[in-house]
Amino acid sequence: MKELLSFLQTRCQGDLLPWQAQAEAARVFGVSPARIEAIALENSLLPARYQRNRTIISCQDQLRLFSSRVAVIGCGGLGGYVLEELARLGVGELVAVDPDVFEEHNLNRQLLSSPASLGMKKTAAALERVSLINPAVTLVSAGVAFGRENGSELLRDCTLAVDCLDSIEARMELGMVCNDLGIPLVHGAIAGWFGHVATQFPGEKTLECIYCRHSGGKGVEKQLGNPSFTPAVVASLEVAEVCKVLLGKGSALRGRILSVDLLEMDFVETTL
User: Fold this and answer.
1) Phi, psi of 252, rounded to the nearest 5 degrees
2) What is the pLDDT of residue 215?
């Protein structure tokens, strides 16, 4: 440990640790990039990739993000962007849950999709993408449908969950499982030009309140579809909520919902 830390310290530029030094240390000492990142952050060495975070996210905050385990339920329109941004943010462990493969109608909006990935499991694409953009982040791939019966196992040891589903019934089950486990849930939904975001804390019934009039089916997304930009906007709002909740910063969307109308460029907050 002392030898490894000394190796990192001698290769720092100030308190910034370049990626090349992290990769070299992983090879020389035979440990994972994740282990190198943990040792660096625990000793106030900031991986250089995060240097543009530092005015709002301290090195200790970065360690807290790295020590978190976040589940992303659904790896499609919302989930692909959420996984990308969480990995770039430096959340150390991600659990990606989705049973589906990419189809051609996904190509207009799903970040993880491409013509070459048609027929590929979405969770497999998520694993490839996260490994490419931030090798220090660990992604656990679960290519299954989320439900009440397997939810506790899928969310085991998670700090927080992110709802990127397209089924209201599955969302309701996710909300119940998160309450059973006592973890926060960041919820997002999209349809056409529109979307909304809210955060449920343990013991709250946010999802039940939002969908109290739901009578079945997938909701308006099936009718309105989704362009390329709506999932990117709403996913980014979800990731901002995740960051705030994990770090205990700012004011989360607790007991309120933020509705987004990109056609009229209106953002409206409503108390639940």
Assistant:
1) -75, 160
2) 63
